[in-house]
Each structure stands twice: as structure tokens, then as C-alpha cells.
Amino acid sequence: MTHQDLLAVAQEFESPVYVYDAETIQKQYKKLTDAFKQVKKVKIHYAVKALSNISVLKVLNSLGSGLDTVSIQEVRLGLEAGVNPKDIIYTPNGVSLEELEIAAKLGVQINIDNLSILEQFGTKHPDIPVCIRINPHVMAGGNTNISVGHIDSKFGISIHQLPLMDRIVENTGMTVNGIHMHTGSDILDIDVFLYAAEILFETAKHFKNLEFIDFGSGFKVPYKKGDIQTDVSELGKKLSKRFNEFCKDYGKELTLAFEPGKFLVSEAGKFLVQVNVVKQTTSTVFAQVDSGFNHLIRPMLYGSQHEIENISNPKGKERFYSVVGYICETDTFANNRRISEIREGDILAFSNAGAYCFSMASNYNSRYRPAEVLWHQGKAHLIRKRETFEDIVGNQVVIEL
């Protein structure tokens, strides 16, 4: 998408607005599958939590992707998008047995991450194959909030509880058809990932009816020029070789599965905002825009950096700005960032706005959530309407006082 394309989107659909480039999603998907082309059976399950718009799910489904879901609502979104239930894996955390049973009735692959539910589900439904999520006790991820494989994590069943897993499986007669792990997001050290993979391979030997091994995801994408990113090509070579060796020893061709979210959609997204006010204080020049952390919380929540470009004046002289929002609370997007000279009314484009941006948006300050647009085959398609006041009050019940 060019600057003119983005400006046209902002003019047609108003700001703030999210724009997703379908071609970038396709390129990222191909990049990942190409990295593991030495493995006969590879399955990508897109992590719906990153960006759950049905039209985006349809794009990924058309590429051959399945879905990784963490709630019944995400499962249903996938089904609405036309995804085959067999291509959907359901990996919740801390949900009730009833929710797992609903997912099972919908025909999706169940992934269980605690011993209590494993025993309950296996006792009631020994005929339904399940995957087990393992906690490898390996710390990975760029922020403690997104590192999920360490010893104090709430996710997965500890590898040290393997004897208990074995006992439950044996006593219930249930079938374990998959083993899964997820260490965390923003993985930089491939060797750490491969170390966790060895733990998963060792665990897999305990189960004789496996169909797949799921290595989660967490591949880091660049957020600025020269930024470090996961080398999926190198990971592909090393893990593919080891996976093929394991399959040979196991005596069966298993499916190698991954669950990328951010890797597939982050770079595809732009978030467009308009500058309301340029405000000079004694030490700072603020560019105050028509959005806030109600629409893009990641900088405040994770300290993440999103490149910001003034697409209305891309060749202007660069100056230092702090880009902030209109929320009645500190909502800083960037501090003292070099950006082409900003004027009131200019449109700014935030990069890497495809993952965990709209999906984490809220109605804080009773603001509306923005529209979403899919840029597909050279055209802009509205895929979610901007909210209205009727949406804000629609589910409220007004009592007589």
C-alpha cells in the first residue's frame, strides 16, 4: 500500500481506522511454509487472538491455514469464516469442562493444559482424542507478560508431572493424538527454542498414538529498521532435520504444527490517525491525535514500539514529537520521536498494527472502536463498520429511578 492508498482509505472511511494488507499476510504465510518445506506434513494454525476479523480469517483459510483458538467465541468465528472444524485447534486456559465439551461437539481438536480437566474429560469422553499442552519450563519471550513457558507460568502441564499424565491416560483409556508447547512471544534465541523442542520430543515418546507435535510460535517480527527478528529460515533448517529424525525413530510420519499470530498479521496492519492539535510545552512538542490506548494499548502495556510516519508530509523536515492520544489518562504512543514535520490535520500511520491492536481495543472513555479495512487486490474493502453511539448503549438496560 502506498501513501496515497492509505490517505484515500483515511478520507473514505475516516480516522482512526485500521488497514490490513492481504498480500503481506500471504507473503508471511509463504515465508513460514517455505522454511519447513523439508517436512512432509506441516500445518499452520493461525492464532486468532492476534486479529479475529472474519474476513482476515477467510484470507488465511484460502491459503490453507487452520486456526488456533483460545475461546469458544474464536472457534465460532472460525466456523463462520468457513474453516473446517478439523483444522481448528482449541487451546484454552483455565476454562470449565463444559466449555471444552461444547468445543468437542463442534468437532474441533481439543488441547488440554491441566491435570484436573484432563482426568475429567478423559473419564467422560475417552473416545475423543485430545492434545496435551506441556510446560517445558523454558523461559522465552520479549516481555514477562508474554513469556508463558517458564516454571511459574499458569500455562501447560509441567514436564515434571509426566508420570501423573501417564497415569490419567492409562486409567481413562483416552487417546492422546498431539503434544503441544508454547514458550512465549518475541523469540530471539533459536537455540532456546530448539532446547524446548527436545523436551517436547522426549515427552512425545510416552504417547504411542500421536498424529502431530505442535511447537506453538512466538516468532519475532521487526518493529523498526534494523530490528532483530526470528530467523525462521535457520529455525526451519534445524528443526526440520531434527523433526524428521524423530519421526523416523517414532516409526510414523507426524504433522509438524505451528500457531503463529503476530508473525502472519503484524506487518500487514497500519493504523491511521489524524492529528487534532500540535501542542508546544516548555520542553516537549506533542502531536495529539484522535485515538488513544483504547485503540492501541501495546505501547502502554508492553512498552512496544510502533514506527510512526506522517504520510501527509512524508518529505517534510524531521522534528522531534511526542505522539499522544485523547484519553483522559496518560496514553503515550511515542516519546521524542523523529517524524516529518507534523501539522494539525495530518494523517499519521502506525506500522505493525495488525496484531493485538484492534483485538485489544476497548470503549474506554466511551469512545467508539474504529473501522477495519482490508486492502485486497488493489482495493479497499470495509470489513468492520465504525461503532456508533447505538453500539455503546445497545446492551445497557436503563432502570427507572
Automatic annotation (TrEMBL):
Keywords assigned: Amino-acid biosynthesis, Decarboxylase, Lyase, Lysine biosynthesis, Pyridoxal phosphate
EC top class, as a word: lyase
Family, similarity comment: Belongs to the Orn/Lys/Arg decarboxylase class-II family. LysA subfamily.
Function: Specifically catalyzes the decarboxylation of meso-diaminopimelate (meso-DAP) to L-lysine.
A single GO BP: lysine biosynthetic process via diaminopimelate
Pfam family, one: Orn_Arg_deC_N
UniProt lineage: Bacteria, Pseudomonadati, Bacteroidota, Flavobacteriia, Flavobacteriales
GO molecular function annotation: diaminopimelate decarboxylase activity; pyridoxal phosphate binding
Gene3D superfamilies: Alanine racemase, Lyase, Ornithine Decarboxylase, Chain A, domain 1
Species for this entry: Marixanthomonas spongiae
Active site: residue positions: C328
Protein name per the record: Diaminopimelate decarboxylase
Pathway: Amino-acid biosynthesis; L-lysine biosynthesis via DAP pathway; L-lysine from DL-2,6-diaminopimelate: step 1/1
GN (gene name): lysA
Binding site for substrate: R298, Y302, E329, Y356
Binding positions for pyridoxal 5'-phosphate per the UniProt entry: G218, Y356
SUPFAM superfamilies: Alanine racemase C-terminal domain-like, PLP-binding barrel
